[in-house]
Amino acid sequence: MINKSQYLTRVVLLAILLFFVFPSVNSQEKPLLKGSVERIKVHGKGLEGNLEGDDPDRDVSVYLPPGYKSNPGRRYPVVYFLHGYTDNDAQWYGFVKHWINMPSIVDSVFTAGNLQEMILVTPNAYTRFQGSMYSNSITTGNWEDYVAKELVSYIDGHYRTIAKPESRGLAGHSMGGYGTIRIGEKHPEIFSSIYMLSPCCLAPDFNNPRDSVTIAKMEAIKTFADFEKADFGIKASFASAAAWSPDPTNPPFYLQIPVKNGQLQPEVQAKLIANRPLASLDQYIGNLKQLKAIAFDAGAQDAGIAATIKTLDKELNKYGIKHTFEIYEGNHINRVGERIKQKMLLFFSNNLAFDNKKK
C-alpha cells in the first residue's frame, strides 16, 4: 500500500518519463529543410579563343531545392537566371556579400511550401569588360549559345531535371533581363517561359553617345587601365561594343566604338542598334508566340528602363502576344529580391511543367 506522497511522486516521475519518450507533436515535427547551393565549372566550347582572353571554364552556381536530396526519385524544372552587368554568380548566391542573396530568398518561399520547387542555375558572365551581354561575339565568346545550349545540356546531364522546354524557364535582372529576351525570343525550342526584371538595353538609343563630352571620354580609352578608371556608362558602352560591334583586327580591345575623331560612326551605330530587342522584335514574333508565358517589370524610379518596358508592352499587344508587366514603386535594385520572392517564383511555379508523381 502506497501513501499519497508516494503516489504523487510516481505520477510526476511517469509524466517526466512520458515527456522524454513521447515528445509533443510539435517537437516531433522535422525542422524545415533548406535548399543547397553548389558552385561548379562548366566549360564553354563556344567561349574558347575569345579575344578578351576570358577563361572558357565558367563558374556556375546551382541552387537545389529542399526536396532535391530528400526525394531522390523526383525530377525538377530549371530556371536559368542571368545576373546583371558588373555582377557575378558568387554575389547572387551568397558566396560573396552583395545587395541580394538568392538562396535565402528562394528558401523562404520553398520551405514555406507555398510554391512548387525548382532548380535555379546562374552562370558567371563577368568578363574583362565586366559583362558579356549574353551575346555571340568573337571578342566576348558565344555567350548566347553557351547559355541556351551548352549550359542547358550540362545541367540536364548532371542533375535530375525535367529535360524538356515546358520545364525550362529563363529569367534575369538588368543585363540579365536583356539576355533573357535576347535568348528567349530565339530559342522557344529550349525555354517555354521568360521573366525579365528591370531589363536594360532594350531601346535603340541605349548608350548611344549624344554629346561631345561623352564622345571625348570614349575616345580617351586607349588601354585596359583607362577602361578600369572609366565611369559606369563608358564601361557599359565598351562591353556593348565588344558584344555587338567586335573587330578582330583592332587590338587591344578588338571592337569598334561608335565614335571616331569626334564624329559619330553610323555603320557602328547600326550594329549596336540591330542588337536592341525593341529594334529587332518584329523578326521574332513567331518565336515569341510559341512561348507559354512572358512577364517583365521595373521600378518607377528606374525611369529609363520603365519607359522601355512600357514600349515593349505596346509592341507585344500590337501582335496579340500574351504577357504580363508591371511598373512598381522602386529603383533598379531596391525591391528586386521582393519581386523574385513574390512574383518571379510564382510565375514559374504557375507556368512550368513539374513532376508531381509521388516517389
Describe this structure in a few short sentences.
The chain has 359 residues and is an alpha/beta fold. It has 15 helices and twelve strands. Strands 1-2-4-3-7-8-11-12 form an eight-stranded mixed β-sheet, with helices on both faces. A two-stranded antiparallel ribbon has the order 5-6. Strands 9-10 form a two-stranded antiparallel ribbon.
Helix and strand arrangement:
Blueprint: H1 4-21, H2 25-28, E1 36-43, E2 57-64, H3 67-70, E3 78-82, H4 89-92, H5 102-110, E4 119-123, E5 136-137, E6 141-142, H6 143-158, E7 168-173, H7 175-184, E8 193-197, H8 212-219, H9 224-229, H10 232-244, E9 259-260, E10 263-264, H11 266-274, H12 277-280, H13 285-290, E11 293-299, H14 303-318, E12 324-328, H15 336-351
Parallel strand pairs: 3-4, 3-7, 7-8, 8-11, 11-12
Antiparallel strand pairs: 1-2, 2-4, 5-6, 9-10
